[in-house]
Amino acid sequence: RYNYDSSTYNQRWEMHQAFQRMKFVGGGRSLSLLDLIAGSPYMAQYWRWNGATIGRDCCLFPSGAYPYMLEPCLCTIGDRSVIDAAGLTCHLNTQGNFELVPVVCAEHTTMRIMSRIQMGGRMERGSMLLERSLLMTGEVVEADSIWYGQPAVPVMYLGVPNTGRHDQMSYMPNDYSNSIV
After folding, report:
1. End-to-end Cα separation, the chain, in angstroms
2. Cα–Cα distance between 53 and 71 in angstroms, integer?
3. Are the CB atoms for 110 and 82 separated by under 8 Å?
4. What's the pLDDT score for residue 18?
5. pTM above 0.70, yes or no
6. Per the omega criterion (within 30 degrees of 0), is the bond before 151 cis?
7. How far apart are the C-alpha atoms of 41 and 58, rounded to whole Å?
8. What residue segments make up the domains of the chain, in order of their start?
């Protein structure tokens, strides 16, 4: 817990936010410094420099994001993952009591546009969070599954027949051996 009156974390967080608000205006569009490197290997390196644990061959924010990662030092993203205009939120502020819990996206995970993970959320290997979905505090997206909704629920399992699962859920074989992402 990081209370506003006894922790410097909140001041550092405000400085991080100010850096993200710096804009270049031209051609009728304003761009932040991070928009200029969105989706490139430089974006992953930027977040590593800010304390995030990021695996190799990741594609971060190719469509931009607002806001970008708020607490990069508490975010872990595995190899070959894609985070596209999505939110990783590691904090909860309740009546001035600031609580932080890490967020983990394992390898081969995908967060689609406008999806969100709240504090303590975890995505296991090969999982996907679809557009406009919200993973609630402390929830786990199971390996090789696709989740959708607010709050997010599983809609498909990859590589696992429907034994013991809902009949409405789909099945698709999943093989990472030839994966390029």
Report:
1. 36
2. 11
3. yes
4. 75
5. yes
6. yes
7. 8
8. 2-7+14-158
Query: 71, 77, 84, 75: which is closest to 17 by C-alpha?
Result: 71
Domain 2-7+14-158 has CATH 2.160.10.10: yes
Pick from 33, 20, 72, 17: nearest CA to 49: 72
Which residues does 116 contact at the CB level (< 8 Å), separation at least 6? 86, 87, 89, 133, 134, 135
| Mean pLDDT in consecutive groups of 10 residues from the start of the chain, 181 residues | 68 71 68 83 90 94 84 94 94 86 97 96 97 96 95 87 54 51 42
- Integer angstrom CA distances of residue 73 from 20, 29, 90: 16, 30, 10
How far, CA to CA in Å, does 58 sit from each of 33, 108, 154? 19, 9, 24
- Give the strand order in the sheet containing 2-3: 2-3, 97-100, 91-94
